[in-house]
């Protein structure tokens, strides 16, 4: 065969062989889609009614500080959020059973909760306060015979049971019902997170109420709100911590905060 004919036949064959070899080698080294991995799906638990942290607006859209934080965090870690919107206590049960990957609901890192979830670094700070009619003394005699309300499943409910059940009636209810019960006189005092009281106290229904007594003593458990992560997933916990830090540095955290509060919450 003339030399030029061999070149015309052999060179294209050689190029095809190289291309095929490169393709199969690539398939063994890089799985399909490795150049741009699809976002992971995270099952994120948010409260159904805990304004201004989580609530349904007049247009029927679930929104709030926690919702905005969840969406921003998922963008930061390239994950897709699947939101599970339920009452607080139901979300805790889903964390116990493994039905959630993340719970964003102002969680206190109580020792018993550490048995079934990890915790991120704090994402806001707050206090626990008593809300009632001005002048009501928060003492054994002042609360004797009163009805004290707190959210089902909350640490505030545990505090009421421990501190006041010998002189007062402790009432538990979904957070959505608590301030309505207070306004109607069905409970005399509500113990709750101060930020969660903000919307009620500035509303028309809350004009006759205010903080009574002193805020509970500040410590890391009572004042630092954290994000819960499925037990054992330290990689996801670390990713969320890194994302929180990034959002604080790039201003996104402050941008979200200013939508709901005229003051710093960190």
Keywords:
single chain; 266 residues; alpha/beta; D-Maltodextrin-Binding Protein, domain 2; 6-stranded mixed sheet; 5-stranded mixed sheet; 23% strand; globular; Solute-binding_3/MltF_N; signal; Amino acid ABC transporter substrate-binding protein
Structural features, described:
The protein has 266 residues and is of the alpha/beta class. It has 2 domains: 123 residues, Periplasmic binding protein-like II (D-Maltodextrin-Binding Protein, domain 2), CATH 3.40.190; 84 residues, 3-Layer(aba) Sandwich (D-Maltodextrin-Binding Protein, domain 2), CATH 3.40.190. Helices cover 40% and strands 23% of the residues. Strands 1, 4, 5, 6, 7 and 13 form a 6-stranded mixed β-sheet that branches. α2 runs antiparallel to α9. The protein is globular, with a radius of gyration of 27 Å. The termini are far apart. InterPro entries: Solute-binding_3/MltF_N (IPR001638). It holds the Pfam family SBP_bac_3. Keywords: Signal. This is Amino acid ABC transporter substrate-binding protein.
């Amino acid at each position: 065969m003339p030399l030029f004919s061999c070149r015309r036949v052999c060179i294209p064959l050689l190029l095809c062989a190289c291309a095929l070899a490169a393709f199969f080698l690539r398939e063994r080294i890089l799985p399909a889609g490795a150049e741009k991995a699809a976002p992971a799906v995270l099952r994120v638990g948010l409260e159904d009614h805990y304004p201004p942290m989580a609530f349904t607006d007049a247009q029927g859209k679930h929104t709030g500080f926690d919702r905005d934080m969840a969406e921003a965090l998922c963008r930061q870690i390239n994950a897709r959020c699947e939101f599970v919107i339920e009452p607080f206590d139901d979300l805790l049960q889903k964390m116990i059973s493994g039905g959630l990957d993340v719970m964003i609901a102002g969680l206190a890192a109580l020792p018993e909760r550490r048995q079934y979830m990890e915790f991120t670094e704090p994402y806001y700070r707050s206090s626990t306060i008593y809300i009632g009619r001005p002048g009501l003394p928060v003492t054994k005699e002042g609360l004797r015979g009163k009805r004290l309300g707190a959210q089902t499943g909350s640490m505030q409910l545990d505090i009421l049971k421990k501190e006041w059940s010998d002189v007062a009636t402790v009432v538990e209810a979904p957070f959505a019902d608590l301030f309505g019960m207070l306004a109607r006189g069905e409970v005399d005092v509500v113990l709750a997170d101060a930020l969660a009281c903000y919307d009620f106290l500035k509303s028309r229904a809350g004009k006759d109420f205010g903080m009574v007594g002193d805020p509970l003593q500040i410590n890391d458990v009572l004042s630092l709100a954290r994000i819960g992560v499925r037990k054992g997933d330290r990689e996801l916990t670390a990713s969320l911590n890194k994302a929180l830090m990034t959002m604080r540095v790039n201003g996104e955290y402050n941008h979200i905060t200013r939508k709901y509060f005229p003051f710093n919450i960190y």
